Predict the structure.
Amino acid sequence: MKRKLVALAVLLVGLAGFWALLGGEEGASVFLSQPMPGSLAGRVIGVDAGHGGYDGGCTGASGTAEKDLNLAVALLLRDELEARGATVVLSREEDVALIDPENTPGYKKRKELTRRLEIFAAAQAECVVSVHMNQFSDPSQRGAQVFFQAGAEEGEVLARALQGALRELDPDNGREANAGDYYILTGTPASALVECGFLSNPEEEARLCTPEYRQALAAAVADGLEDYFAPQES
């Protein structure tokens, strides 16, 4: 009889655990709260695909729209970060603006950017990376460059980590992280804007239009985010 009681107790414990995995409220809550494994587990990161919808951004030497490349890199970056355990919040996942330009009075661009900041604030993003493409009158200018909001110490630390990782991808790029004045960087102290390259440079535009290079860019930015968070982990 004693053995039967012990066996019954073991069976009940096993069934309770199985129920928790299937969806018992208390057990499921504990199970689902466990972070995904990875170097960025538990981190909440905002990824902003610059421009979108009516706002195409700059245009490449061969007519490439910046907004499309921004979104392509941002989606790849999301995948890279999620694979490393992070929770990623995107400002947009499609070619859309976050306002109705026909029915929004006043300074449309500022209101659209404010909506992006609200998305990241609601998700309590620890840092934000805004993805863009560059343009200049001199077509020989090339290379990715990262900007931080002037006076934002954490933003500068993040930007330097990202610039270092991008330099490993392109050792010939001598650009340094630099301060700027970008409204999208004002919502979170640790924010950086990544200009992935110059669309006005025909060679760089062609490279940015290849899936392989965009994937390499996304991986480099993810590496930079790992470098940024590493000291905090230690």
User: Anything to note?
Assistant: The first helix runs from residue 2 to 22. The chain has a mean pLDDT of 87. The chain is about 45% helix and 15% strand. The radius of gyration is 22 Å.
